[in-house]
Write a structure and sequence with these properties.
With about 500 residues, the protein is an alpha+beta fold. The protein has a single domain (about 5-505), classed as Creatine Kinase, Chain A, domain 2, CATH 3.30.590. About 45% of the residues lie in helices and about 10% in strands. The chain has 19 helices and twelve strands. The chain has helices at about 5-10, 15, 75-95, 125-140, 140-145, 160-180, 225-230, 235-250, 255-260, 295-305, 325-340, 350-365, 380-390, 395-405, 410-420, 425-440, 445-460, 465-490, 495-500, and strands at about 20-30, 55, 60-65, 100, 150-155, 185-190, 200-205, 205-210, 285-290, 310-315, 370-375, 380. The strands form three sheets. Strands 1, 2, 3, 4, 5, 9 and 10 form a seven-stranded antiparallel β-sheet that branches. Helix 6 runs parallel beside helix 12. The protein starts with a helix and ends in a 7-residue tail after the last helix.
Length: about 500
């Protein structure tokens, strides 16, 4: 069997140079007092239906900023920064709203007052809003306001089996990323109002768990009893697609009770199946493919294979202006290559259950001294398992540094090793310390201060006229593109909905 070093050496410099990474970053728009902004998506930012870089996620108040795919972490973050600059300058021209820099939400109004994303009058635009209405019925709107960073990653020459091997190992080792980069150990009390939870009071209006890393990725975050019934296998494209198709076509009694339309004819959801559409499936990582107009994502995967993976468990880092820094992105590149290059046995139902338990333990208690996780049925200390993985990353970092020049990837791995030895330097520990010592135990006061500081820092950056001109043009083009889509509609929405959701469109 080849050693990891041999497998790294077998990767040509051209392939390593061919790695592409892009970022999708969600952020709530907030008022200066730390409450959710209830204003419409700013018109100056363009159409969220058709804009390639600036859209909305679940809520009208939740921006999603999207980079292209780039040849380096530095280039990806440079584009993400420019998108932020444009957004901040346009928000500043309108008033004093800011982007909320934590994954866990700001002060929220009543659930039904949180506005759903709006995408115009076209069938595809209406479908996006109805989908969000379905999410609100199924999970509540509060859960959907949680924000994060998705890291999209590809390497030339990887086939479907290779990407699924990567995904299996990623799921095994995802606890390491939650530990190193989790930054959501506390929440505003309004987030858990009326819900059962095990959180402890941190201050008058904040709740936390003392050893938590990422409440976003724990039982309070993107969880659902319905989806807990899914045991999706990642042993290959065929088994993954079959389990996803089952969830997309199997009616679920609780959702049948909600119904597709209410008695007045308004839509409650797109479908009564366990998943309305593919995007509703919550996972720490997804196999992805760019889809064609009107195409179902599952059909695209089956027909043309996996094109890249989408890493979904990264919290916003409130200490970084755009929520993530270059060393973190470089560590992800090294980590993903490690997942690809190390042996990846098939998963089993028992392992899938153990990995879910590991995720919840790390999210809620990751920094707890002596915490053990389940590795192949054996209890191992999280820090020992983490140290073993980080210890294997050196040859991968060296190979990337040889291609890109310098030692930035080795430095990113060294920083991770240092944080394993000094958990007080982890983002989750720093957040709790700052909330306690600088903001009187108030999570909202902490995030509000960092949001205001981030706003000031990004507005102070050099802002060439060419950046504004480019994004102004994109905004104008996106509005026209939305109008064109609306003008081209030829069938009633119900016909469109039935046709789009037809199970035949999931298959080849």
């Amino acid at each position: 069997m080849d050693s990891l070093s041999d497998r790294v050496a077998a990767l040509s410099p051209d392939r390593l140079r061919g790695i592409r990474r892009g970022i999708e970053k969600e952020s709530l728009r907030a008022q200066p007092d730390g409450q959710l902004a209830l204003t419409p998506h700013p018109a100056a930012l363009g159409s969220p239906l058709t804009h390639s870089h600036i859209t909305t996620d679940f809520s009208e108040s939740q921006l999603e900023l999207v980079t292209g795919a780039h040849a380096s972490a530095q280039a990806t973050l440079a584009e993400l920064t420019e998108i932020h600059q444009f957004v901040y300058h346009e928000l500043a021209a309108l008033g004093d709203e800011m982007l909320w820099v934590s994954s866990m939400p700001c002060g929220l109004p009543t659930d039904e007052t949180i506005p759903l994303g709006r995408y115009g009058t076209s069938n595809v635009g209406r479908a996006k809003s109805v989908y969000r209405m379905g999410l609100s019925h199924r999970y509540g709107r509060r859960m959907q306001t949680i924000s994060g960073i998705h890291y999209n990653w590809s390497l030339p020459g990887v086939d479907n089996d290779g990407y699924f091997a990567l995904i299996r190992n990623f799921r095994r080792h995802a606890f390491l990323l939650l530990y190193l980069f989790g930054a959501s150990p506390a929440v505003c009390s309004s987030f858990v109002a009326g819900r059962q939870h095990e959180l402890q009071a941190l201050g008058e209006h904040a709740m936390h768990l003392p050893w938590a890393t990422s409440l976003r990725m724990g039982r309070l975050g993107y969880q659902s009893d319905a989806q807990a019934t899914l045991a999706v296998s990642y042993n290959g494209l065929e088994s993954y697609a079959a389990s996803l198709e089952d969830a997309l076509t199997r009616s679920y009694p609780a959702y049948e009770a909600v119904g597709i339309q209410n008695p007045g004819g308004d839509y409650n959801q797109l479908a009564t199946t366990l998943l309305q559409i593919e995007n509703e499936f919550y996972g720490t990582i997804r196999p992805k493919r760019v889809i064609r107009s009107g195409e179902r994502p599952l059909h695209a995967l089956r027909e043309r294979g996996v094109e890249y993976v989408e890493v979904r468990l990264m919290d916003l880092n409130p200490f970084e202006p755009v929520g993530i820094d270059a060393p973190t992105a470089r560590f992800l590149d090294v980590f993903l290559l490690h997942c690809l290059l190390t042996d990846s046995p098939p998963d089993t139902p028992r392992e899938i259950a153990a990995l879910k338990a590991n995720q919840h333990l790390t999210a809620a208690r990751g920094r707890e001294p002596g915490l053990c996780l389940d590795r192949g049925g054996e209890a191992v200390r999280l820090v020992d398992w983490a140290a073993r993985i980080v210890g294997e990353l050196a040859p991968i970092a060296a190979a990337l540094d040889a291609v890109h020049g310098g030692g930035a990837h080795a430095e990113a791995v060294a920083r991770a090793r240092q944080r394993l030895a000094a958990p007080g330097e982890l983002p989750s520990a720093r957040v709790l310390q700052a909330v306690r010592e600088e903001h009187g135990g108030s999570f909202v006061a902490f995030t509000r201060a960092h949001s205001l500081d981030t706003r000031a820092r990004l507005l102070a950056l050099d802002y060439p006229a060419a950046i504004k001109a480019r994004f102004d043009a994109l905004a104008t083009e996106s509005v026209q593109a939305q109008l064109d889509i609306e003008a081209a509609d030829r069938v009633p929405f119900e016909t469109f909905r039935r046709e789009y959701l037809s199970s035949q469109h999931l298959r080849l």
